[in-house]
Amino acid sequence: MTAIAFKTPAKVNLGLHMLGKREDGFHELETLFQMVNWCDEIKIECLADGLELTCNQPDIPTDEGNLVIKAARLLQTRFPDRCKGARIHLKKNIPHGAGLGGGSGNAAGVLLGLNFLWDLELKREELILMASELGSDVPFFLLSPCAIGRGRGEILEPVDSSLKFYILMVYPGFPVSTAWVYGNLNLKLTKQENNISILKNFLLRSEFAQLGAAWTNDLEPVVFQEYPEIFAIKKQFLAFGAKGALLSGSGSTVFGLFDNLETAKTAYTRLEGGKFRLFLAESIVSLSELYPEEMLR
Question: 3-class DSSP state for residue 284?
Fold first, then answer.
């Protein structure tokens, strides 16, 4: 095969707890990742040599600054005698800088796609190790649709969940800088009793009301103080029947959890007409919803 097409998903953080600052400058954290079916689309074609990236969004870089190119270069550097070239087209649907991990998912998908097209035959565990060199969130997108993340987010524990539920996401129309959020985080104000394992148990038992009530994201105070309009969106979710509402990662997207599709659709309708972007998504329970079977062997 000389070409392949697939989707890469967004993720939300079903809880995010900051444990402290590490010696390497990053923050030690604990989170519960969940993939949702708001997806970018990628097509890769084999070339004899060279790397080309095109994108439907003109503000997305297509040079070495894009994680897609970095992922391909990582494989080429590690296996120079076995890698070829590639033409990659990226159709971006997930907003950039929204706290949804779109770029990380793109990089993970390209690692999987090129591993298949270039006949590298690397095991998933090997790709996950390489993915950690690209970014803290990238390994998650190669492992499982739901997982606990620790360390910088790269130490992963898969969560075997087959639950389908609904996530209504609101992107307020502007990104929030992750570096700025972490730079302004006051660790003394974080809630030490937060336990991600408790959230996992609520999720596995379909106790959505308890899950939503226990949700916390230690980055919310930083973001909400600077952007009160994002906090206002969270309050609207709760007023419209969400079991819980939370900032995803460092923002700027806010999402609400619904166990009933009709309630989620009603909330969507009531939120329509604002300046922000809405997307009603469903939880992903299998990577086969995204990738062709041959990529997952």
Answer: coil
- The catalytically annotated residue of 11, 200, 234, 243 is 11
| Cα(96)–Cα(75) distance, integer angstroms | 24
* Distance of alpha carbon 163 from the chain centroid: 18
The half-sphere exposure of 194 on its side-chain side, counting CA atoms within 13 A, is 20
- DSSP per-residue string spanning 134-182: T-TTTTHHHH-SEEEEEETTTEEEE-------EEEEEE-SS---HHHHH
How far apart, in whole angstroms, are the C-alpha atoms of residue 52 and residue 60? 14
Q: Which two tokens stand for residue 225?
A: 């103080």
Of 7, 40, 137, 200, the active-site residue reads 137
Domains of the chain: 3-160 (3.30.230.10), 166-282 (3.30.70.890)
Q: Determine whether 11 is an active site residue.
A: yes
**pLDDT per residue rounded down to tens, the chain (297 residues):** 799 999 999 999 999 888 767 666 566 789 999 999 999 999 999 999 999 999 999 999 999 999 999 999 999 999 999 999 999 999 999 998 888 999 999 999 999 999 999 999 999 999 999 999 999 899 999 999 999 999 877 789 999 888 889 999 999 988 888 888 888 887 665 555 567 888 899 999 989 889 888 888 999 999 999 999 999 999 999 999 999 999 998 888 999 999 999 999 999 999 987 778 899 999 999 999 999 999 998
